[in-house]
Amino acid sequence: MGGPLPLGDPAPADGRLPVELRVDESLPFSAYLHVPFCRVRCGYCDFNTYTSTELRGAKQDEYADTLIREIALARDVLAEAGPLRPLETVFFGGGTPTLLPAGDLGRMLAAVVDAFGIRDGAEVTVEANPDTVTPEVVRTLVDAGVNRLSIGMQSAVPHVLAALDRTHRPENVSTAVRAARDAGLDVSVDLIYGAPGESLADWETSLDVALALEPDHISAYALIIEDGTKLARQIRRGEVPAPDDDLQADMYELADRRLAAAGFDWYEVSNWSRPVTESDPQDHRSLHNLAYWRGSDWWGFGPGAHSHVAGLRWWNVKHPAAYAQRLSAGESPAAGREQPDAEARTLERVLLQSRLAEGLPIADIAAGRRERVAELISDGLVDAASALRDKRVRLTLRGRLLADAVVRALTD
């Protein structure tokens, strides 16, 4: 069910933004639609998700109608803050969005598009567990306007999937990818490395299988142990080993080599995509995630979802039952909100944009810390040519492995 919500100021029951806030019409606007349902809770997962036994009064078959109420509220709230902007990206995340009927996802998508409009060619992504993807599901999603499927592969090795409490069969990943390809969807696969008992050879197997699927995009995330998860408790009791930092670094370097050799470009520390070419002019990066990393505006719909508009951040109540009760009463589901000050915004900008291949403008670093760029170049963490020629902080491979240290150097 995820960690606690942030501390912040109370959010008004009507969800209205502060009267002094006005949206920047030039800033892209996106929508995130959270579907908080899972068949089984994975041992490493700290997301705001719920199995059927944890719903306590919330009903999956009523969820789409509940979320559509929040969409109507969002339109009213944003119409008071300035001109409505058409959506640049839409992302269904979870949880497992495809646990809902594909028709429900389609109705939610139609509602948010009707409320705000959508740019021609906008990216519309649905996350999916491989076991929930069928040709029929994919056809319904395509008919609704979805054009990208993000498939939770995690690993191709059975004992690694078991260590992560993943229940899908490895062979179902290729079935899901084939169904998506046959329907003309862009395909991304997600991988996790560093699970208990996973060797470098196991990780290489997963990379080989993922590349053989010929996706457009691959995400590879180091396993992080979150407090309160089953895996954290197992490690604390000594039942399984904690991730090995050195092994995870070796796994990252292997992934970067193999993906580069296969023609993928890294564009964020944990993400690679096929490049734009004359024969394939489509941008295969996750444009929705880029909107987060670049500080655009978005509204997050659903329990526990976070939003960011005109410098204001807010987050919804976590449990689906509480979320439904608020909206049924005609109230906003927002639990709290905050307006970060300039220092906090600078810290976030450095944290996020330094992870991008396009780099962070040196001008965006606080003036008293810019001299540290030279030290980072000397330590082999920042590319010298990019800093001198483009005036941007761009991480080297070693810098990507030590990205948190780079952020500390530029902000502490």
From TrEMBL:
Functional note: Probably acts as a heme chaperone, transferring heme to an unknown acceptor. Binds one molecule of heme per monomer, possibly covalently. Binds 1 [4Fe-4S] cluster. The cluster is coordinated with 3 cysteines and an exchangeable S-adenosyl-L-methionine.
Q: Which domain of life is it from?
A: Bacteria
Report domain Radical SAM core positions: 23-265
Family note: Belongs to the anaerobic coproporphyrinogen-III oxidase family. HemW subfamily.
The protein's matches in InterPro entries, at most eight in alphabetical order, are given as: Coproporphyrinogen-III_oxidase, Elp3/MiaA/NifB-like_rSAM, HemW-like, rSAM, rSAM_horseshoe, rSAM_sf
Q: Does the keyword S-adenosyl-L-methionine apply?
A: yes
Question: Where found?
Answer: Cytoplasm
Q: Does the keyword Transmembrane helix apply?
A: no
- Pfam families to which the protein is assigned, alphabetical: Radical_SAM
- List the GO terms this entry assigns under cellular component, sorted alphabetically: cytoplasm
Q: Which SUPFAM superfamilies match?
A: Radical SAM enzymes
Sorted keywords for this record are: 4Fe-4S, Chaperone, Cytoplasm, Heme, Iron, Iron-sulfur, Metal-binding, S-adenosyl-L-methionine, Stress response
The species is Microbacterium esteraromaticum
**Primary location class:** cytoplasm
Set out the biological process GO terms recorded for this chain's protein.
Answer: porphyrin-containing compound biosynthetic process
SMART domains, sorted: Elp3
List the molecular function annotations (GO) for this entry: 4 iron, 4 sulfur cluster binding; coproporphyrinogen oxidase activity; metal ion binding
Q: Entry's NCBIfam families?
A: hemN_rel (TIGR00539)
Q: What is the lineage of its organism?
A: Bacteria, Bacillati, Actinomycetota, Actinomycetes, Micrococcales
What protein does this entry describe? Heme chaperone HemW
